[in-house]
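Thread title: Can someone regenerate the structure for this chain?

I was given the following input by a collaborator and told the matching structure tokens would be attached. They weren't. Posting the sequence so someone can regenerate them.
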Amino acid sequence: MKIVVTGTRGIPGIQGGVETHCQELYPLIADEQHEIIVIRRPNYAVERSVQIYKQVAIKDISAPRSKHLEAFVHTFKAVIYARKVKADIVHIHAVGPALMTPVARLLGMKVVITHHGPDYDRDKWGRFAKWILCMGERAGVYYANHIIVISEHIRQIIYHQYSAKRNVTLIHNGVNVPTRVIGTEYLESLDLTEYGYVLAVGRFVKEKNLDQLVEAFTQLSSPSMKLVIAGDADFQDEYAQKLKEVCWKQKNICLTGFIKGDKLAQLYTYAKVFVLPSTHEGLPIALLEAMSYGCPVLASDIPANKEIGLPDECYFRNGDFSNLLHTLKEKIEIFWKKAVEENPNLYNGPDYTIEKIEENENEIKMIATKTNYAHYLYDERVGIKDKEYKCNVPWGGIILETKDNYLVLGEMDEK
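Best answer:
Regenerated them for you:
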């Protein structure tokens, strides 16, 4: 049996949930009885020389680099290619490319579509584009021989909008159980410390809501905590460029670009918390990956995320910025809560860390930053070395204000 796959940007190592889904799925199917050909858009290929990936053949077919036309043109050309190579089945991913389902059926091929989510709900699309995506969903549902959905939420959408359709199978997204990560070389290259950062992974598009996460982080972040965003934009539009500019201005926000493999594994393994603030998802692979590494997670309470079944404290109300701010703060502060559970004698009181001392003949000027004991304790445990962010030893000195308004400076001894 020959199966041609389209609707994806391609494999391997290409950014996107659908792409990760395909990269993991088809090597499990390919064997002597099942020839798999994934149609790839060459401008996304990390290494164009890779034409076989774990027994899966890769065929490059070009398409215009356009946010609105690329997927449709590429899928049409892929369907024509499938007919040329006498494919038995065309497997189409996503509702936009599914618009070509009737074309494939007219050319005598069977079609399976995988519905990854109602893309017409994404913020990035205008009214006409959303209408086209709705038509793609309709064409796929009515004309495909079979429909696969990746979440119960999507299945219910189909049953509600197309009540007569019953050729639908639910196959949840999944991830492989990762091997244990020990190295921290990539963290060190980014000047990160273990459990010293909040992690987000995704493309720079509106529905990922990364701009809200950045705003929340800048409002509550302690100097020792960093935000790491792993991902990039397919198209460098106004939203993506503005997001990058905001992040570049913040010393404690790190943009890694799109990464996979061991680099991403290290970030998942040592993140203090993984945050997925999306307003739209199918069934988020990034969230599943973070969970597979044992990383604490915080996600918006949209249906796709709620379907994973996390405890209530792992969700915040979608679209509620103040709730995101509150729950993120709680996740970051969980370190201190655990420390107090281990040692009830600890007290997280106010503390001042002296950053700079200027002395002349008549005066001593000290520049201090207000912090707290949890800040200092956290710095010590994760081994922060950067002088710019580190909280200095709080018991190293003392300042007393006398009744007659004088300040007395003293230094404690080693005892």
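The chain has a mean pLDDT of 86.
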